[in-house]
Amino acid sequence: DAGVTQSPTHLIKTRGQQVTLRCSPKSGHDTVSWYQQALGQGPQFIFQYYEEEERQRGNFPDRFSGHQFPNYSSELNVNALLLGDSALYLCASSFGRGIGYTFGSGTRLTVV
Amino acid sequence: GIQVEQSPPDLILQEGANSTLRCNFSDSVNNLQWFHQNPWGQLINLFYIPSGTKQNGRLSATTVATERYSLLYISSSQTTDSGVYFCAVERGRDDKIIFGKGTRLHILP
Description:
- The structure holds 2 protein chains of 2 kinds.
- Helix content of chain A is 0%, strand content 54%.
- Chain A is mostly beta strands.
- Chain B is an all-beta fold.
- In chain B, strands 2, 4, 5, 9, 10 and 11 form a 6-stranded mixed β-sheet that branches. In chain B, strands 1-3-8-7-6 form a 5-stranded antiparallel β-sheet, with no helix packed on it.
- The radius of gyration of chain B is 13 Å and the shape is globular.
């Protein structure tokens, strides 16, 4: 039974560019949450998707957007990248509302 | 919003030693979790423990919800226990998870 799969594992982008990160949830899970983890910090909640809609959002600007597909997979898009967007981006899936969180290994984004 | 504070921020121990990690939170919570993040970034859930005590092998956790703190105990530490330990809380059943800044644990051989 595959866990949460994220792609790519590493990514280098230039300031001002746009990036798309992808997440496939654990089998049987229908909810996907995204977190940003800066170096030396705990993960910060970006948003959560359930039934293809954004259900909750953390304190992140509109440059951060997402999508959930009918197969429950999800994308995180970041526009107009800033140096400060460099971080590990973690995806977590769960069944229903926060039950049984499982995290992926993350995508490490470096903005230069 | 709710604040989650973890202590100590860093801990260096010799293999075989025991350790206690603490998590304080500023408001009542619906759930509390302890995670271990390995050097490759993978977050592994150790315990769901909104109250009471649980044990899993060399690890155990206790949450005293009325006093708003939780403790994670690691006994007979091994080098594979190294990494960052996070405490994370949920205010309500549908709420997002809020993480502390973590405790970085180094176990020396």
